[in-house]
Design brief:
The protein is built from five helices and five strands; from the N terminus they run βααβββαβαα. The protein is of the alpha+beta class. It has a five-stranded mixed β-sheet, with helices on both faces. The N and C termini lie far apart (52 Å). One of its GO terms (molecular function) is N-acetyltransferase activity.
């Protein structure tokens, strides 16, 4: 079963985020807390959303996403920040069902795309995404400002 996340799901989502980070070889990089997720997902004006997958009444996967925009399409889209399904229930269709729910939302709202990033070494995920018809955007490279470079640029004087 796929459903929108509720505040009661936050501890499980955070546990799954930690599992995902461990899988992605970045366990020490997770700084999020339950309070962070609760505030972000269920605060006064949420800008991030989550859906969960349940197996026998237990949350076993999640998709965390937000609305994006394409100037080229002139339409909103969905950016999938994280998709994760516990290893013991992979292959049961939960990942596909989560992505299908996001696709349904995108189509229903008239959005132009659903997109996400995947680590280049994560061949199981890449194969799964390709099996759904997703195409890699190899010509684009992700750039990121964080930590001290982010603070320094934010503190710089406008030209």
């Amino acid at each position: 079963m796929i459903r929108p996340a509720t505040p009661d799901d936050v501890p499980t989502i955070l546990r799954l985020v930690h599992e995902l980070a461990t899988y992605e070889r970045a366990a020490n990089e997770v700084k999020a807390t339950e309070a962070d997720l609760r505030s972000t997902l269920f605060g006064a004006e949420p800008k991030v959303f989550a859906h969960v997958a349940e197996h026998e009444g237990e949350v076993v996967g999640f998709a965390l996403w937000f609305v994006s925009f394409s100037t080229w399409l002139g339409k909103h889209g969905i950016y999938l920040e994280d998709l994760y399904v516990s290893p013991d229930v992979r292959g049961h269709g939960y990942g596909k069902a989560l992505l299908a729910e996001l696709a349904r939302i995108a189509v229903e709202r008239g959005y132009g795309r659903v997109e996400w990033s995947v680590l280049d070494w994560n061949t199981p995920a890449i194969g799964f995404y390709k099996s759904l018809g997703a195409t890699p955007q190899d010509e684009w490279t992700v750039h990121r400002l964080t930590g001290e470079p982010l603070r320094a640029l934010g503190a710089s004087e406008p030209a």
